[in-house]
Amino acid sequence: MNTKTYIPWENTYDPEVWRARRRVLRAVFRPVGFKLLARLGRVEGLDNVPRQGRLVVMFNHIAFFDPLAVLGVLPRDAVPMMKAEALDYFLLGYLPRWWGVVPIWRGEVDLLAIRQSLAVLEAEEALLIAPEGTRRPALSQAKLGMAYLAARAQAPILPVAIEGTEGFPTWPFSPRWWKQRIHLKFGRPFRYVVTQRNPSRDLLRRMTDEAMYVLARLLPPHRRGYYADLSKATQETIVWL
Questions:
Q1: Model confidence over 65-113: pLDDT tens digits?
Q2: CA–centroid distance for 192 within its chain
Q3: Which pLDDT belongs to residue 107?
Q4: Topology of domain 10-166+177-240, per CATH?
Q5: Separation between Cα atoms, residue 162 and residue 58, nearest integer Å
Q6: pLDDT band at residue 3, thresholds of 50, 70 and 90?
Q7: HEC profile for the chain?
Q8: What is the pLDDT of residue 4?
């Protein structure tokens, strides 16, 4: 299936069109996802999640299951940004199509993905983003897209730290299923104080790194990677909510 044809919306995003479908998918996923395909352990900080309004949800990306874990726990709908190739995965590729995601064609400046993402935020919905743009066991230097979208839409950012998703989804009752637990920690939301709709690249880099250091503080040391030295963290472009 050609993923370039997957354009659920382009400029106008209507959450009402997707809400009923996502309600059904949530009802199915929670028992199947966390009781059969993975094991949910500790969840911290759900009180930090804004229940309404535009929101960028950023998370560290260890494994394929990460966005499913966040969506399964988050007390509101969110629209994931996802590599377009994932929409062609056997069987699993249908889930993001039914949910309604923003597909990203990596290796190019994807203006359509930018328009779709801004449409979600302007509809006062939540956007789910892995700022690094790829899966890694520890944080790598993040790309600038998350900061650009949050600044352009003047959307708060909610950091989510994920641990224990390696190897999920797995066969039910496999050794990993018995031994491993997924842990999620929702941090305090913040927003950028930058008022420019199109910040310079240097400013976007500083904004991105400051947000990533916030995420790094929520993670165990072995997950911090590029952002391991927390003494380098600054907060000149952000304000806590």
A1: 999 999 999 999 999 999 888 888 777 778 888 899 999 886 665 788 9
A2: 18
A3: 62
A4: Glycerol-3-phosphate (1)-acyltransferase (3.40.1130)
A5: 11
A6: low
A7: CCHHHCCCCCCCCCHHHHHHHHHHHHHHHHHHHHHHHCCEEEEECHHHCCCCCCEEEEECCCCCCHHHHHHHHCCCCEEEEEEHHHHHCCCCCHHHHHHCCEEECCCCCCHHHHHHHHHHHHCCCEEEECCCCCCCCCCCCCCCHHHHHHHHHCCCEEEEEEECCCCCCCCCCCHHHHHCCEEEEECCCEEECCCCCCCCHHHHHHHHHHHHHHHHHHCCHHHCHHHCCHHHCCCCCEEEC
A8: 63
Amino acid at 159: P
Interatomic CA distance for residues 217 and 45, integer angstroms = 14
Residue 97 one-letter amino acid: R
Report residue 18 as tokens. Answer: 């997707």
Of 22, 239, 45, 225, nearest to 150 by C-alpha is: 239
Encoded tokens for 24: 């059904």
Q: In whole angstroms, what is the distance from residue 57 CA to residue 157 CA?
A: 6
